[in-house]
């Protein structure tokens, strides 16, 4: 089963998780990380790293963030490059996660990423989808190093 780390501003992550638990019961492999104004980037990174390790059973983890490019999204993006089957989604909201909940158990992280983006488009995107629009910067030196 895919782990979920719901990381949003203020108490939105906990609110979403509470509503999901009210509907589905206790959520396994799911953590809420609330990002409050004034929270240091270091503390946010530590909280999200802890959440990642508590939700990962080996099938992958989906970081579900509210605002593209904001601190939770940036921290998740950096972490995702160090862990296999880790996806970063932005623009999430309760009803979308409610619709996608059952697919945590059946889809791979990559298939889940594509399904949630398709279901929530155009507001919802992923780090992978954004990288397809803007390929990574490559130094000319690196191209001719061989």
TrEMBL record:
It comes from Yokenella regensburgei. InterPro entries: Bacterial_PTS_sugar_comp, PTS_EIIA_man-typ, PTS_EIIA_man-typ_sf, PTS_IIA_man. Keywords: Cytoplasm, Kinase, Phosphotransferase system, Sugar transport, Transferase, Transport. It is found in: Cytoplasm. Residues 1-124 form the PTS EIIA type-4 domain. SUPFAM superfamilies: PTS system fructose IIA component-like. The lineage of its organism: Bacteria, Pseudomonadati, Pseudomonadota, Gammaproteobacteria, Enterobacterales. CDD domains: PTS_IIA_man. Its main location: cytoplasm. The keyword Cytoplasm applies. The keyword Lipid biosynthesis does not apply. It holds the Pfam family EIIA-man. This is PTS system ascorbate-specific IIA component. Coiled coil: none annotated.
């Amino acid at each position: 089963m895919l782990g979920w780390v719901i990381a949003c501003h203020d108490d939105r992550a906990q609110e979403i998780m509470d509503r999901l638990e009210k509907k589905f019961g206790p959520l396994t492999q799911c953590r809420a990380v609330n990002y409050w104004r004034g929270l240091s980037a270091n503390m946010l990174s530590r909280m999200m790293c802890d959440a990642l390790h508590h939700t990962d059973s080996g099938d992958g983890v989906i970081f579900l963030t509210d605002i593209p490019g904001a601190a939770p999204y940036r921290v998740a993006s950096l972490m995702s490059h160090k862990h296999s089957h880790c996806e970063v989604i932005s623009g999430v909201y309760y009803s979308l996660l409610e619709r996608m909940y059952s697919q945590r158990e059946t889809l791979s992280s990559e298939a889940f990423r594509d399904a949630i983006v398709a279901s929530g488009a155009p507001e919802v995107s992923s780090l992978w989808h954004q990288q397809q629009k803007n390929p990574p910067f490559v130094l000319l030196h690196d191209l001719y190093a061989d």
